[in-house]
Amino acid sequence: MSGTSGDCGSGSGSDSGASSSSSSSSNSSNSSVTGPQVYDKGKAKAPEIRRNDSNEDGLDTNGHSENNRPGLGSDGVDSNIDFGFDLRPDVISSNRSLSAAAGSSSSGSGSSSFHRRAPSINTQRQAFTQINQLQYNQNRLVLAGAIQQATDLLNDLQQMNRVWPIYYPREAVEGPSSESASTNTNDSASSTANMTVLNGGANSSTNGTVNGSSDNSTSSQKDSKHQEISENGTGRSQNGNSINSSDNQGPRLVVPSASRQLQVFKLDLKLGSGSGSQELLNSLEKNSVASLLDAKIVQTLKHLASLRERINDTASKVLVTGDLNSGKSTFCNALLRRRILPEDQQPCTNVFCEVRDCRENDGLEQVHAVLIDREYDRNDEATYEIHGLDSLDDLVYEFQKYSILKVYVDEKRPPHESLLRNGVVDISLIDAPGLNMSSFQTTRVFSRQEEIDLVVFVVSAENHFTLSANEFISSVANEKSFIFIVVNQFDKIKDRSRCMNRILGQVEKLSPQTHKDARDFVHFVSSRDVGTSSGGGGGDDGPDGDDGDGGNGRDDDLSPDFDRLEESLRNFVLEKRSLSKLAPAKTYLNNILQDIEILSEVNIKFTKSERDLRLHELDDMTPKFEHALSDSVKVTEKIDKDIEHCAEKLYEHTKKELNRVLMQTGQLPSVSYTSIFDAYNYANSIRAAIIQRIQDAVYDCEVHARKETAIVVNSIKSLGILHLGEQPAFLKIFKEDAMFTKGRHNLARSIQAELSVSDFITAAAPTWVSVITNPFNSLLTLGEKSKELTLSEISEPISQVGTVNNALTVASVIGGGQMILQSKWLNHALNAVRWVDFQLLKRLLVPALVVGSVCGVAYVISEVPNSVPRNVSRKIAREVVSLGYVEANAKRIAKESRKVLKYPSQDVRTGFQRLIENTAHQREACEKSAKEAQAGYEYFVKLHTDAAHQRALIDQCNLETHLEVD
Ligand SMILES: Nc1nc2c(ncn2[C@@H]2O[C@H](COP(=O)(O)OP(=O)(O)OP(=O)(O)O)[C@@H](O)[C@H]2O)c(=O)[nH]1
Asked: Do 333 and 535 touch, CB atoms closer than 8 A?
């Protein structure tokens, strides 16, 4: 296949990426695809500019040509071609023909035409470079601004998340019984979940963003997202999970599809694929999710900072990575056309080797071995050791000593061929340790990619993609739209087309977009076949491949696949610099902003629903609060009134009962009288019986008070249950029997009521004596009085407590009168007096007095059974009155009742106080939540607007004008 001098530029047949290139290897009609280049390697690689308005060139109506792809031949253009375009960037962006022209940097159809047009091409190339630079700068500024804006938004979001944990959309975990999630999302869910594990949140839509299909895919994605969110209604999920911030532990929101669309902010618990990790995520408490998100934001901010650095860095970094022994170093050497980096069949590259143009090092070819933990500063030799290029063979093993080897080399090729010294941008080529060498090295390679503009992934044609390769490529896709895949050691493969098909099949699965543009991004090469000269010896004679004596180069270094690869790479890094350098930033920003929009939308919805819920609760709470206030006043007033009423009733009742008993004490005792000689004991028994009777009356009053108090207690209990939903705590320990167990008035001890002789003498005795001394008047008067006074006439004033004393006096008079009136023999004597002569009476006086006295004594003695109870009861009654016993007991009983009732009353009062306080607190909390939710709502609305605005700006940032691959 080499050495054929076929026409490489006129093929216009359609192709389907690299698959056609595979078939073309055996198809002469497509020799332009893989056929050998006929130009001299030292010169013919300069691209030709062809007339872009010529259909003869195989252009389609849009001015594109299949053959315009780098590495493919195309017809040349007239050497007198006029630029005919405005250099202003805005005009540039619409100048598609220019782009097409710039993109047609392929090999010429013949060396003669190349030589004829070379000066013109170089001039134009310079012009394009200028234009590219202008547009690049403009885009760079836009993206730098967007990075700043996104950083600000993220800082705000982080603050917000720390103060008010934001709601992270959680997926409904689809178990076997779950039918809630729509079946049409299952596939995407699982595939995304798989991708998540591999790439930490990227998905293939990333690629679409920059490839021209981004607008459509993004907007349709967004539309569907809007739809899903609106379908979810008012923030209560279709799965029945309600948004209720009071339930802080449960899932706060389920928006099944939203989280699937999150890319950068997708929380990955690294528990394997699918629902395991999701379940765990769903079960996490909101603060845990917030801190996971916080960590993501921190990570994102870091990445943005490195992106900013990267786009401000004028140099471009190309990372060459891949599995162990896939031929990365050999590939780098092939690109440099010098054997600089050590190649070995055994794993050797343990330290990153960054190859740069030696002009950055004052033209000196050196190795700067950067010491671990030192930040490389070329002007500070303390940060590195200087070695010659020939030391590299040893240095590459020293990964414990050096973090990176900066290799300054002189490519010694003209700018239009050289990669490092291209005159456009400083490029550095980084040879990385094999991915599957150790997890330590792998992690380093992963972390390195943040500062990388372009990744070239070298895979061995024999081994295909390993697991680590899969992971790495997926991870790269999070940010980079394009990745070069170099399938190396193709020369070792016998059945090449089968190998190609299999590898392309794998690429298709890994990155459909890369597969789509496989012609430019997937290359099957044999790096070892590319001519290189020995680097360490420094004696190479140039870039071309005729240095069969150097390194492992071969004479037959005409490797068309490699040329095409090189051309694509150059084209991509230099002429499509916006794409290689800025596209990662654009893609990443787009992903972040879209994630922010998704989070905002979910949170707008949540905060709105939360606010409405809180306001609704507030509406409900206000009347409850007012009711509680008025109930508290009414109920406690009623209870106080009931207590007071009860106490008053008991006071009155006690007084009435005791007075009644006191009134009846004279009649009550039923103690048997034996003789005058037992009169004292009789009187004592009477006394004790009367006191006991009064005490019994007091006890009865207490029993009555217990019952009355219990009734009020029950009424308070009912009020408590009715208004507070619970009975007062006191009632749980209330026992009515415990009342009046202490402090009962001991009447026996208080009452003296000592017996005296007078207690044994009837109250009528003095009256009786006066009857003797003033027989007529006294008797008549007495007779009249006795007839006039009746018991009923005097009982009424006695009922009044204050008149007990008078009543007793009156009772004694009545008692005496009745006694006299009841003595029949005295009546007979008085009747006889009317018939006896006064003189006779005079003479009979002394004997009459003697007889009278005897009769009087006899009378007194005979009256002891009657007079003692009367006298003793009077005496006790008088003493009870003087002690204020009735009043004291009435007060005591009322007080005890009041005291007992005070406890449940206090409980109810406390209950109301608690209720009011709780309601007030709830109201405050509710108001606070509503305010916070409102503030959150406003914040997220603004955040969404800002993010959408930024995303629109980024969308306008057209990186594609000069970036067409077609
Ligand atoms: N046949 C063949 N051998 C190749 C090709 N490229 C590299 N090799 C050989 O493969 C072996 C490994 O090459 P390296 O370039 O050291 O591989 P590497 O990926 O840099 O190795 P590490 O950095 O140690 O992971 C060497 O012996 C190379 O000569 C190729 O295209 N064809």
From this structure: yes
CA of 665 from ligand 1 middle (Å) equals 131
Rounded distance from Cα 72 to ligand 1 centre (Å):
27
Q: Is the shortest distance between the CB of 347 and ligand 1 below 6 Å? A: yes
Is the ipTM of this structure higher than 0.90? yes
Let me know whether 700 and 566 are in one domain.
no
Please state the pTM of the whole predicted model: 0.52
- Å from CA of 70 to ligand 1 middle: 26
Helical segments of 533-582, H only: 560-570, 577
* Ligand 1 midpoint to CA 346 (Å): 9
Determine whether the shortest distance from the Cβ of 327 to ligand 1 is under 6 A. yes
Cβ neighbours around 657 below 10 Å, total: 18
- Whether 836 and 907 map to the same domain: the answer is yes
Protein residue with its CA nearest to atom 11 in ligand 1? 345
Total Cβ atoms within 10 A of residue 624 = 13
Q: Tell me: pLDDT of 809 over 50.
A: no
Q: Whose CA is nearest to atom 24 of ligand 1?
A: 347
Q: What pLDDT is recorded for position 169?
A: 77
Q: Is the CB of 31 under 6 A from ligand 1?
A: no
**pLDDT category, 681, cuts 50, 70, 90?**
confident
- Owning domain of residue 800: 621-912
Q: Is residue 339 part of a domain?
A: yes
Distances in Å between the Cα of 491 and the Cα atoms of 348, 408, 460, 461, 652 are 22, 31, 11, 9, 122
CA distance 922 to 386: 71
Q: Name the band, by pLDDT with cuts 50, 70 and 90, for residue 945.
A: very high
Asked if residue 527 has its Cβ within 6 Å of ligand 1, the reply is yes
Angle at which helices 286-312 and 111-163 cross, to 10°: 150
